[in-house]
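In practice, a research group might receive sequence data for several interacting partners and want a quick structural hypothesis before committing to experiments. The following worked case mirrors that situation: the sequences arrive first, and a predicted assembly follows.
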Amino acid sequence: MSKLSFRGGIHPLKEKHEGKEATKSKPIRPYVPEEVCIPVDMHLGAPSIPCVKKGDLVKLGQVVAEPAGPRGIPVHASVSGEVTAVISKQQLYGKPSTCILIRNDKQDTWVDCHILGDVETAPADKIIGAIRDAGICGMGGACFPTHAKMVLPEGKTVDTILLNGSECETFITADHRLMLEEPQRVVNGLRAAMRAMGVQKGVIAIEENKMDAYEAIKKAAAGREGISTALLKTKYPQGGEKQLIKAVTGREVPSGGLPMDAHVVVLNVATAAAITDAVTEGKPSIARITTVTGIVNEPSNLLVRIGTSVSELITACGGTSEEPGKLFFGGSMTGLALPDDSVSVTKANNCLVVVNKKDAALQETTECIRCSRCIAACPIMLNPQRLNILCEAGNLGQAKKENVMDCILCHSCHYVCPARINFPFKEAKEKIAARRI
Amino acid sequence: MNLRMSAGPHFVARESTQTLMLDVLIALIPTTAAGVYLFGLRAAWVLAVSVISAVLAEFVWQKLARKPVRVNDLSAAVTGLILGLNMPAEVPLWLPAIGSIIAILLVKQLFGGIGQNFMNPAMLARGIMLVSWPAQMTVYTLPMRVLGSTSVVPSPDAVSAATALIRPSAYNPYDLLVGNIPGTVGEVCKLAIIIGFLYMLFVGTISWHIPVTFVGSVALLSWILGSDPWMAILSGGVLFGAVFMATDYVTNPLLKVGHIIFGIGCGIIVVVIRKFGGYPEGVTFAILLMNTVTPLIDRWTKRRVYGTVKKHG
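A structural hypothesis for the assembly, expressed as tokens:
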């Protein structure tokens, strides 16, 4: 079987099996928290507007914050119980978020759910609306509102929906377990999305380090209209949209463009599963699978209610074996470090890694020795060595000419750098965008 | 809870500048051992002096210049060892000391330290010594001992001889391969160099592009010009230079295609110097010349960035 791939890229933590060994065979286990703290700004775009107040009794799946603007999505109660506060609380970074605190009455009393029907027979023109009402946003980490991705601007056409099951980031096994345990939910979600957008072709792409998941999906997809599977080489950042589109379709997203400019929409497999729930059961996005790993005593794949605190997650996994030095959401390549363990799990958080003091220690940056490992690693064919010099010298105009804006911030260059250079491309891109250089 | 906040990547590859340099040192073990065996204790002294003076020179400079002392990145040790291996065993011991100081201070630190030098420090130091002390630098001795059974008579009393390049036909292929020939400490035992090359390929220190295109173009061009290609490769310093000196990260191009241009360029210059120049050997100046062309090669060779149309010119 031919394995698809792209040029450049790396194989991070290869000697440690990408850090996935501890959880890849751990079945998904639900965890119900005592209390949730749900931020209203989980998704990309304008924060939703709270519509409950302290003392309100809410049901599971009830809307607690209304969407703001056409791209906005509602936020739902992830437990049933009493709203104990609407507060402003620091989450990952940036300004504090408005959060809704709900004490769980452990009854899981559902609101009335509006079921559209089977994914093959539900009215196609109602599906995108159902996705929006279910508060679904990209669950691979970006949290871009899914319905907004599916409504194309005038003149744009899409012929393929790609389901991203590559899970190329280290440590994460949430999508792996989902595809293995509930392949039908994934495939059904893809069918619903295809019907909603009127797209004939759907491809589910999975890396070869998850052969069991690949086989499960392949079996579930057999005989389904327009759906095929693609086996990908295990390489980072295979799950990056640009790399995935190149590997599966051979097309490139034009510089500065979006996947739809290559006539493709990319959805995460967990997003597809959420779409199935929204269409067939009318259930909103109130939980997600999160891998909890690192120095926790029982590394697990937890089905977590949105808004559960990180400290509860760590407790649910038996606590830590030593004092943590760093916590981060996501994989080790692009994951976001946490300021403390009171932060809430959002729809984007597919993984929590707890790192000990030793591994969290700062690595000293030394001088570039021109080894060109960064150049070999860059999946966009940039020259990080030269761009680093340009950015450090403040020559952002030249850096822009040499395509720094095409950098996808995958950190492959930093990973392979023997001098531990912290390539400053995120800051450079932000400055160029802000100053319109 | 005291947590460290930082952007990704939260784990990095194991390779650091130090481990890369350590791998080069490991790759040089066979060559060093063969050199010391063939040329005796005298060769060990030359290597010891060159390594110690290179490391000391770097240490003293970094102290005086109030820079962070980074001799433990092992780059000075690599420079010193390679320079020592580039000398005949019978050189007076002040020569490797001077050579290492030139390499570290003049070529490396004065241009800004590691990563900033535009020529390979050991190579330019050897070039400077070749033209400053030609007598001492080019008097080669026959090995004191020989490897395996051969007709070559070892010379415990340090009898000088011309480099095997002058009259390669005097030695059979076996002697050329294991190093029973006059030459510098490191260049004679081709087998040891090949073992070092394979090690560096295996652990990923270097890629094949420069050594293979360098050696290949020397062989091909020598053959076209009527010389024995095997003798061209095995009798002089081509193999040592191609594996351990042309592959210096700092002074060769960044892209693979640049590596190929660099390797072929080195090969052509070696053959031109050998065939038409005044020196019997051309590896030193070939690599130095290509070092100076490296920024140009980097400028000419561009990759097409994902999602863009290839720019011309």
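Before designing any experiment, note the following. Chain B touches chain A at residues 1, 3-17, 19-20, 70, 73, 75, 113-116, 249-250, 254-256, 303-308 (CB under 8 Å). The first helix of chain B runs from residue 17 to 27.
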